[in-house]
Amino acid sequence: MLRAIFFDMDGTITRPHIDWPTLRQRVGVPEGMPIMEYIETLSSPERQQAEGIVEEVEFQAAEAAALNPGATELIHDLRVHPLKLALITNNHRRAMYHIVEKFHLEFDLLLSREDAQLKPAPDLLQLALDRFQLTPEQTCFVGDGRYDRMASAAAGIPYIHLANDGQPADGAPTLFALEELWLHIGFEKPA
Fold first, then answer.
1. What is the pLDDT along the chain (191 residues), one digit of tens a residue?
2. What dihedral do alpha carbons 28, 62, 115, 151 form, nearest 10°?
3. Residue 46: enclosing H or E segment and its boundaries?
4. What does 57-90 look like in DSSP terms, one character per residue?
5. CA–CA distance, 127 with 56 (Å, rounded to integer)
6. Pair 162, 142: CB distance under 8 Å
7. Does pTM surpass 0.90?
8. C-alpha radius of gyration, the chain, whole number
9. Which terminus, N or C, of the chain has the lesser number of Cβ atoms within 10 Å?
10. CA gap 77, 75 in Å, rounded
11. Which residues contact 57 (CB under 8 A, 6 or more apart)?
């Protein structure tokens, strides 16, 4: 029985917005290396400067963000059911709170990269399980990217993919719009 739904933020609740190649170039991230992993290798002054650039870009993206179609209605309608809802993002906390406040979204739990190791590590998802006192089988994770899928698999949580690019995910249920989530969760959309 599903008791909680975890959502990624960027690209899932909000439309994809950050220009990742430009950000990678500004920070000087080598090809094929994750941004935050690269920043961890830098000396203290360089790390602070790089983190500042990333946070600035993320917050600007949060300020300019638009919701994915149907996000507000989905979150509102899910509140009718006895489900816990969590927003789990690799973004920083200030940008996450800005999105939640800007769009008046109601989640039971908000987790950002300040709370645990970033996805694709399962730590943020496992923290949500611990906070809700649930097993992986009692939840699902809705995301839009490879890191979401990897984190979900590592945590043992069923994954549902939102295909912003129109390409279905191999081996995972795929949504082409958020409202399609109702077809996968065993609950009826309120009338």
1. 999 999 999 999 999 778 888 899 999 999 988 898 899 899 999 999 999 999 999 999 899 999 999 999 999 999 999 999 999 999 999 999 999 999 999 999 999 999 999 999 999 999 999 999 999 999 999 999 999 999 999 999 999 999 988 988 888 999 999 999 999 999 999 98
2. -70
3. helix 44-64
4. HHHHHHHH--BPTTHHHHHHHHTTSS-EEEEE-S
5. 26
6. yes
7. yes
8. 16
9. C
10. 6
11. 18, 23, 26
Cα separation, 188 vs 185, whole angstroms: 9
Task: Measure the CA–CA gap between 32 and 179, rounded to whole angstroms.
Answer: 34
> Which structure tokens are listed for 84?
């816990």
Is residue 125 within 8 A of residue 88, CB to CB? The reply is: yes
